[in-house]
Amino acid sequence: MELSQRHQEYWRKNLVITAILLGIWFIATFVVGWNARELNSITFLGFPLGFYMSAQGSLIIYVVIIGVYAKYMAKLDKEYDVAEGELE
Amino acid sequence: MSSNTLSHSAFNRQLKKTYSWYVGGFLIFLVALAIAEQMGLSKAWIGYVFLFATIGLYAGIGIMSRTAEVSEYYVAGRRVPAFFNGMATGADWMSAASFIGMAGTLFLAGYDGLAFVMGWTGGYCLVALFLAPYLRKFGQFTIPDFLGARYGGNIVRTLGIIAAIVCSFVYVVAQIYGVGLITSRFTGLEFGIGVFVGLGGILVCSMLGGMKAVTWTQVAQYIILIIAYLTPVVWLGIEHTGIPVPQVAYGPVLQKVGELEKKINADPKELEVRQIFRDRAATANAALKDPAKAYAEGKAKLEQNVASLKAAKAPADQVAAAEKALAAYPKDEAAAKGQWNKDKGLTARANPVRAHAEPFPGKDEAARHTAKLNFLGIVFCMMFGTAALPHILMRYYTTPSVQEARVSVFWSLFFIFLLYFTAPCLAVLAKYDMFTNLVGSSFASLPAWAGAWAKVDPSLLSITDVNRDGIVQWAEVVIGGDLIVLATPEIAGLPYVVSGLVAAGGLAAALSTADGLLLTIANALSHDLYYKMIDPNASTGKRVTISKVLLIVVAISAAWVTSLKPGDILFLVGAAFSLAASAFFPPLVLGVFWKRANKAGAIAGMLAGLGVCMYYMLRTYPFFTNMGVPKMDLWFGLNPISAGVFGLPIGLATIIIVSLLTKAPDRETQELVEHVRYPNLKGDTMSTQTA
C-alpha cells in the first residue's frame, strides 16, 4: 500500500524525537564520562559531580528519556490515527 | 483461548492483587523465620529453609503455569502488562554478577567500576528508541525470526541462531556457576550438588510452562531479589547517614571516605607495611635471578642458625622457633620459585590507596587517557550489547500492544535502576565502615563479621599482621569483591535471617537470568532451526515438545561446562556483550530504520562485525595468545573486552556499503518495514500478529 502524507509525517516526527532523545543520551553518557575528572571539582548534594552523574544522575536521565518517549509516542499515535484499538 | 476469558484491565487488577498477597506472605515468612532464629533455629537450617522454600515456590508457579499452547509457551500469550513485564525483565536482566559482584567491583575499582552501572542501564534507552516497539509490532516469537523475515532466506536466520546461541550459552554458564556457589556457601552442600539442585528449579519452571511460567516466576524472583538487596543497605544507611534512603545522602560519607584515604596514605604504620611488601618483592626478584644459588643459600643460613643456637645452648623456645623456620622453608627449588613468583606480585599491595571518587587514575597524562578510553569503551559495549541480547529483546514480544511495549521498557529500567543506583552507595558505605571499624582495631578483638569471614573463606577476606604490631592496617587486608554483598548483613549487625535472605536474593537473580537464557537457546533451536528450516509442517504440539526436550539437553550441557569451571567469568560475560553488539545491533536497527538494507548487506555486515570482534579478542586476550595465537598490540590501548567498539561500526558500515552495491530489497520487504513502523496501519494487508 502507499503511505499517505500523514503517515510520512508521523514517521518524520518519530525520527525527530528519537534523534533528540538520543542526543541527550549521548551527552549524559559520553560527554559527561569524557569530562568526569573536570566535573569532579564541582560539588553537588555533597557528591563530586563527575562521580554523582555516573553513579546516579545519568541513570535518572535514562529513565526520564524512556518515559518521555513512551508518553510522546502515545500522543503521536492518537494524533495521527495509528494508535492500536482499545484492548478488550 | 483461556487468555481471552479475562479482559486486559481485569487481568491486570487480578495480577496486582495476587502479587500484593505474595509480598505480604513473603514478609510474614521472613518475620516468622526471624522469630524462629531467636528461639534457636540454627544457621544451617535457616539456609535450607530459604533454599527449599524459594525453589519450591518457583516450581509451584511453574506447575501452575504449565502449558502446551504455542503462543503461551513462546510469548506468554502476549498479555503481560507493562508493569509486570518490567519486573520480569529486571529479574531476567540482573544476574548473579549484578547482584553479588557489582557492589564488590565498585568497592575495589571506585569510579572506574561505574562503567558497568552506566552501560547496563543506558542500554535500555537504545532498546526503547530503536527496538522494543518495532519488534512488538512485528510480533513473532524470536529475534532470528525478525532477521529471517526482514532479510529473507535462511542464511541470515542461521547467522542469527548461531549468534543467539553463542552469546546466551556463554552467559548461562556464568549463571549456573553463581547458583552452585550460593547454594554451596549457604547450605554446606557440595558445589556440584548445588548446581543440580538449582538446575532442578530452573527446569521445572521453564520446561512446564515456557515463557508463561518464566514470566510469572521472574516477577516473583524480582520481588525477592530487590527486598534482599535493599534491606541491609537501608539498615547500614541509617547507621551512617541517619536516614533510610542512603542512596541520596551518601555524598558526605563519600567525602569522609576521601579524608580517611588521605589519612591512611600518610599513616606511618601503613607505610611500614607497604615497605615490608616492597622489600619482600625485591628479595624475590633478586632470588629469581639465580634461584638455585638463592635456594641453597637460604637453606644453609637457616640450618646454620639452628646449629649455632644449639651449640650456644640457647633457651629451648629459641631453638624451637629456628627449627620451625627451617621446617617452613620450601621443600625444593621449584616450590621456592613458586613462592618468589608470588612475592613478586606484592608490589601491587605496596601502592597507596586509590581515591574512591577519582575517575581514570594513572601515573601520567597518557595513562589517564588510556584509562578514560577503556572506561568509555566498556560503557559503549555494555550499552549496545544490552540492546542486542536476545533474551532481553524477546521479553518485549510478550506485551499486549506496541504502546505497552514502550511503557514496559520504562518499567524495566526503573526496576533495574533501583538496584543499580544502590550498588555504588553500598560500596561507599561498606568502605566507610571498614575504614572506621576495621582499620585500627586490634587483632585480638576484630569486628565479629571480619573474624568469621576470614575463617570461612580466605579468598574473600584475609587479614595478616604483616608488621606484627597487633593493629590492623588497611594494607594488611585483602578483600574479594563478592564479600561486600554477602557480608553486609553482618557488617550492619543484622540477624542471620537477613544473610539467608541475601543468599535467596542472589539465587533468585541467578535462576531468573538462567531461565530466560535457556529458553532463548531452546527456542532458537526448536522454533528457528527445527520448525522454520527443517520441518515447517510440524504440529504445534510437536514443536513445543521438541522445545522442552532441547531445554533439558541445553541445561545439562551448560551444567557440564560449568562443572569444568572455565576461567575468567567476567571476561566471558563481557565477550558475550561485545559479540552480541557486533552481530545483532546493526542488522536489527538498520532493518527498521533503513528500507534499503538488504540480504547481502546483512550477511556481509554480521560476518564482518562478528569477524572483527573475534579477531581482536583472539589476537589480544592472553588466554588465546598464550595458546599460540600471534599477539598484536592493542588498538588505541583498548582492552579485548571492548572489542565491540571496533566490531559494531565496521558491521554497520559493511551493511550500508554492501546494500548500496547490490539490488534494493523487494516490495514485500519494504512493506514489512512500513508495517513495523506504525502501531496500527489502516489498509495494511500484512498480518504477522498471531497471538
Description:
The complex is a heterodimer of chains A (88) and B (691). Chain A has helices spanning 5-34, 36-39, 49-79; strands at 43-44, 47-48. Chain A is mainly alpha-helical. Chain A has a domain at 23-79. A two-stranded antiparallel sheet of chain A has the order 1-2. The longest helix of chain A is centred in the last third of the chain and has 31 residues, at 49-79. The mean pLDDT of chain A is 92. By secondary structure, chain B is mainly α. Chain B has helices at residues 8-38, 43-64, 70-75, 82-93, 96-109, 114-138, 143-151, 154-187, 191-241, 246-249, 251-266, 268-289, 291-311, 316-328, 333-344, 365-386, 390-393, 402-420, 423-438, 448-456, 483-491, 496-534, 540-563, 569-593, 599-620, 622-625, 644-661, 667-677, and strands at residues 461-463, 477-479. The longest helix of chain B is centred in the N-terminal third of the chain and has 51 residues, at 191-241. Chain B starts with 7 loop residues before the first helix and ends in a 14-residue tail after the last helix. The model of chain B has no long low-confidence stretch (mean pLDDT 88). The chains are: A mainly alpha (88), B mainly alpha (691).
In short:
Chain A has 88 residues and is mainly alpha-helical. Chain A has three helices and two strands, in the order H-H-E-E-H.
